Amino acid sequence: MGILNTRKNKKYSYTPRFYKGDGNPYELKHKFDEYRVTAGNDKGIKTKLNNAIDDYKYNHDRSGANRRIMIIIGVLVLVFLFIIDFDLSIFFSDR
User: Fold this and answer.
1) Which residues contact 32 (CB under 8 A, 6 or more apart)?
2) Following DSSP, what letter does each residue of 46-71 receive, concatenated?
3) CA 18 – CA 47 distance, rounded (Å)
4) Nearest alpha carbon to residue 39 among 59, 19, 20
5) Spatial separation of the C-alpha atoms in residues 45 and 31, rounded to whole Å
6) CB 37 within 8 A of CB 51
7) Coil, helix or strand for 6?
8) Residues 45-86: pLDDT tens digits?
């Protein structure tokens, strides 16, 4: 065993005893892979970003999760501004 050489993993030809199905039983797959475009293994940040934007545009939100997230973010921002004692009078002018 050399210092610079890495050890190779051993390969076995094991087949499960009770598996009677199609495909590889050891393949790890997300349960929403067939429904989403962004779950693929595309390389590059530009293609990932374009796929995410297309997925957001053409798959409408049926449960209202986006609106719920925006409400939660708004409440957290207001709580943060209250904690740091932010003065809102700078946005209003005295006439």
Assistant:
1) 39
2) HHHHHHHHHHHHHS--SS-HHHHHHH
3) 41
4) 59
5) 23
6) yes
7) coil
8) 888 888 878 877 877 777 777 788 889 999 999 999 888 888
